[in-house]
Amino acid sequence: MKCKTRNIAVIIAALALMLFTASIASAEIVPVKLRIEGKTHTIYEGTIKTEGHEVTTQSGGTHKCDGTNLGANPEPGATPTAAVDAAGKKYGFTWDGSWYEGFEDYFVERIGDSPQEGNAYWGVLVDYEFTPVGGCQQEVHKGEEVLWAWNAFEVSHFLKLKKAKHAAPGTVLVTDGLTGEPIEGATVGPVNNGPGVMTNAQGEATLSFTSPGKYRVKAERPDSIRSNSLVVKVS
Question: Structure pTM?
Fold first, then answer.
């Protein structure tokens, strides 16, 4: 009888190990389109592969950050804060945030060289909308755009830059990322070592370069968060 009981215990343990291993193997690593706009410059812009994981900050210690925080989601997944943590480790910048136990989440206070200053807080958006929960509770999926922005709550627009349709070559369009509203008075550049070209009432700017090549430009306006980058080809 003891032998039979022991065998059953071994089988149960083996099944538990198999289920645990399967759950690890099926954990999804998500390519996240991440952009971090600091006080004076873009800290990071690109795709980072990440999954929900434990993160560590100097001020907040080590905690899980996988979307299940505070029961926000039933299954773990990639999160905006985990994406920042993964990008920082890979590309050599740091971040810091305090941990709030009641929310089971970090309050991000610095990314790279841009700390919170007064009312200039860090905010996080997914597809140009503020997340309704914290950066360790919100889950993100392939194809979504994650934006961390310094002074996010005191600006008028989150700029989006793209090529203008049915317009002259080199013409770009600047809009509000959420509403699609054309943005006048944004500067798109640099252009020929200068600051750039200002958008008109239709949100358009025509860029003219002195030599052929590929040029990476962004849009900025004093009351707004700078845009994504865009590569303009000149032949």
Answer: 0.87
